[in-house]
Amino acid sequence: MLPARSRVRVRRFARRFRRRVSKLFPVSAERELFGSRVRYLEQRYAERALGLGSGRGGRERAARLLARHLKSPQRRCLRRRGFFIVVGKSGRRFRVWARRELSVELVNSANSQHVQKPWCYCIHNGVTEDGALLPLADYLLELKLCLEADEEYFMLTSNPDFIQGVIEKNELLRRTSASIGGQDAPSNWLRACN
Amino acid sequence: MSVMRVLGRAGDRELTWDPETGAGMQSAKLLFEEKTQHFGYLAFLEGPNGEGSEMIRNFDPHASSIILAPRLVGG
């Protein structure tokens, strides 16, 4: 058993050593932003995409852009817990999970079944016009920007997997339809948005 | 200098223009219109420090930073 003073010295030495080594070998932005499990799954996803996935350089570039747009607590939460919180214009809080399916979850304290089943929204955007897949970091960035900029557009585009969300979406569609004044106005409006 | 970032497979592609002299603005505007009108991309205007982003439909030549991203589709 080392005495307390020696333990402090060892820790201090280890901290300095780590700092010096990290200067010699800078850690990639993707590694800083995502945990090992997320990186592994994303790599597997890119491999399964039959050459349409993004390479390491693309993923790194996307991670740098996302890191610039996240605040420090959001980055830390994404790295440690696999999600970050986004507050929409209505004040509602959303968890954006670092995954491809059901990546947006509504954080609602009124949800009594929260432990059993989270309230998620089904939405995809990962494909560009030439059929290639966006890096995960870019996908998450777009979700963040959309939730912050136009929450209503997000609600109209995504498909909620919980009944309250479906009711809200129908209500939004009805309101939009009434404001435009046509039978199939919501689809026209969505097409115009897209 | 203003910058427009187009999200794609290899990360983001940057296009810059000078709002005062107009250098590079025409090509940025053409790319913006092509992506948003033909391919349905969403355009986000970034606020200062990356906060308070806003969705835009038309090219803003005085914007400091615009992000173009593929459209969202309900799953």
How are the SSEs ordered, and which strands pair?
The complex is a heterodimer of chains A (194) and B (75).
Chain A: H1 4-24, H2 29-33, H3 36-48, H4 56-69, H5 72-81, E1 83-87, E2 93-97, E3 104-107, E4 119-124, H6 136-149, H7 151-157, E5 159-160, H8 163-180, H9 185-193
Antiparallel strand pairs in A: 1-2, 2-3, 3-4, 4-5
Helix pairs in contact in A: 4-6, 6-7
Chain B: E1 2-8, E2 11-17, H1 25-38, E3 42-45, E4 54-56, E5 65-69, E6 73-74
Parallel strand pairs in B: 1-5
Antiparallel strand pairs in B: 1-2, 3-4, 3-5
Structure explained in plain terms:
The complex is a heterodimer of chains A (194) and B (75). With 194 residues, chain A is α+β, with helices and mostly antiparallel strands. Chain A has two domains: 23-150, no CATH class; 162-194, no CATH class. In chain A, 57% of the residues lie in helices and 11% in strands. Chain A has nine helices and five strands; from the N terminus they run H-H-H-H-H-E-E-E-E-H-H-E-H-H. In chain A, strands 1-2-3-4-5 form a five-stranded antiparallel sheet. The radius of gyration of chain A is 21 Å and the shape is elongated. The termini of chain A are far apart. The model of chain A has no long low-confidence stretch (mean pLDDT 81). Chain B has 75 residues and is an alpha+beta fold. Chain B has a single domain (2-69), classed as Roll (Ubiquitin-like (UB roll)), CATH 3.10.20. Chain B contains one helix and six strands, in the order ββαββββ. In chain B, strands 2-1-5-3-4 form a five-stranded mixed sheet, with helices on one face. Chain B is globular, with a radius of gyration of 12 Å. Strand 4 (119-124) of chain A pairs antiparallel with strand 6 (73-74) of chain B, so a sheet runs across the interface.
